[in-house]
């Protein structure tokens, strides 16, 4: 069904006069459509300041978060919303003074840094505080104050010094958290887990309507407002949907416990979009308005640094983080720059169109950036957090040659360029972290997926969803056939949860953690499977 976006009339009018690519490059378009006129200003044009004493309800209903840890810096986030399910979060279009504190202890007896920042209405009263000149490799605690209100504390950490020989790191990978598909029980467990950092691999938000009972949550103690019972299209739509997700107490707890490193997939904007091509065949200029709204709301609601602030429908989300000499993380964006899916998307047999050298999943610039980063890497582990399945997945039905056109299987030339680049860069310990598919896989990355005896050049760890797909099952109906037709696939599980990966100087261990149900709260966590890959000898082995 085609959407009829209800964007501001002046934005829609401007979009109609722009060509497909000119939208992204023309300065005038950036001024009209990049929300450049909706950025905080100084002097007499600035929004009036709100007396914080007039805020009569807790403004920290969405919790707090930290992200993108650097050796001497942490990024702290919150968004003020005393009435989170109202447009504007229950605050007037006035700026609010927000105080922050950073301490060495969770009781804030040893506060080492404090400061003041401004929550601007143009950014939906979100704040992104970059605290610099900190000690590397250290745990810190933080909180915010507005008027007489004090947030609950959060815990974060800095990365080790870039040249240091950090001996260990435990990360968690999560993805796909459709609010309407169940409770965030996995996040409750993750908040209590001992990890250094969480990588969110996409689908933090879903654009689909949420019913008054919260979909599969089937609430009996509350009624969600009708504002959520429609697909997100406009900036206000996306802002309100983030508010719904972020009021979940288990998601709040996970963010408060660990720093997050985030990247988006498709549903933060729209299902299976590719670049400026949407799912429904709408004019690119119309879709790019929607994309600009989605990207703006994403930045406002995530612990991202200033370089990731969008300019209209464009945002530099791919970036590189270091964990001493132990690991380099190359975080990809496989939506914004990809060519359109071949063969009409979906599961199709490969064709010359899908196998063409012109097809690219991350875009040619990002491909070169990744390979160049590998060439200069001095890390023991080169880890690529990204969205869609990298390794080959043959259809489990014998004789069926269909592959997913939305994953790297639909862009094999792009995958081959990266594998050649990894070879040329002499990458020896390559690990790809993946989300998207609502199941967990452990797979060996083969140099040639058409040859089962081909050299293993890395490993792929695919995390299942937090909720998307509802409860699932440990062994889906195609479990046996899938494993048989894909010998490089060492593990396949269809329940919800997350994965932890412990990187060390001699090996890496992946633990796939699942819950039995998400349509009812309170399920226990279990480790469904564990695998190890050795430094210098890639390949997953069950433990």
Describe this entry's structure for a reader.
The chain is an alpha+beta fold and 543 residues long. The protein has 10 helices and 24 strands. It has helices at residues 9-15, 22-25, 27-33, 185-192, 235-246, 249-257, 284-300, 364-376, 412-424, 479-485, and strands at 64-70, 73-79, 96-103, 111-119, 126-131, 139-146, 149-150, 154-157, 168-174, 197-200, 260-262, 319-323, 327-331, 347-348, 381-385, 403-404, 430-434, 440-446, 456-462, 489-493, 496-504, 507-515, 525-534, 537-542. Strands 11-10-9-21-22-23-24 form a 7-stranded mixed β-sheet, covered by helices on one side. Strands 12-13-15-17-19-18-20 form a 7-stranded mixed β-sheet. Strands 3, 4, 6, 7 and 8 form a 5-stranded antiparallel β-sheet that branches. Helix 5 (235-246) runs parallel beside helix 7. The longest helix has 17 residues, at 284-300. The radius of gyration is 23 Å and the shape is globular. The protein starts with 8 loop residues before the first helix and ends with a strand.
